[in-house]
Design goal:
Length: about 290
Amino acid sequence: MSGIADSSANEPLPSRRTRSLRRPRGGGILIAVVSTLVVFATLGYILVNAPGWSRLQESFFDAEVFADSFPDVAAAFLVNVRIFLMAEVLILVVALLLAVMRSLPGPVFFPFRLMAVIYIDFFRGVPGLLVIYLLGLGIPALRLPGVTNDVLFWGLVGLVLVWSAYVAEVYRSGIDSIHPSQEAAARSLGLSRFGALRYVVLPQAVRRVIPPLLNDFIGLQKDSALLSLLGIVEAFRRSQIAASAAFDFTPYLITALFFLVLTVPLARLTDWLVERDRHKRYAQVGAR
């Protein structure tokens, strides 16, 4: 009995967060549901009774225009998805290369670190819209022999250049979060500097930065609409054409719904990953 008492005395006390999770939450859920209904019902009442509601309803919520425009906008949205997927793969590779270059130690690698810093500072400082304009309109205007004039290609390059600078900093934060003793231990086991980086540091760093990476890709999904400024007929451009033809803004609502369908699940996945990582840390602290 004394051993049991001693072992229970040495167990860590549950945290305030853990105790709150164990409490019955029926009353809290009911209050949350009621307050949510009250808030949204009040907002809906104010919106419907606004003086210009009828005009707004005709301009943005026309069911006939919605049904007519939906197939065309849906087909054009596949272009956005294609742009996003191609850009995401390229950004992951280019950004990781930049982060590794900026993290290389020693004076011999200073030129590589300098190039990475200049690249990141430049493309984070220049508006992405300007980069897309300069590449998508400027390169084809040069008519260089052997160089494609496809505006979709150069718009994609502009997205990759801009977002690689942001994602590189996310990677670098993950690399810097790995304690130097990890690399020292790997080097003591016979791994080279690059071997330790490849097999020890990078795998841990990438796992740690997955949630912020997903947040960046939510922004990348939305920025795929910027390529419409080059004349590419994607969802936003198609909605502009449909809105001009129908003298109605409902097609813009369709485009917004498509982007929400794509981004909201990714946002919830990010929240779930962050929460799972937090629970793992609490579990490790409790085990100690």
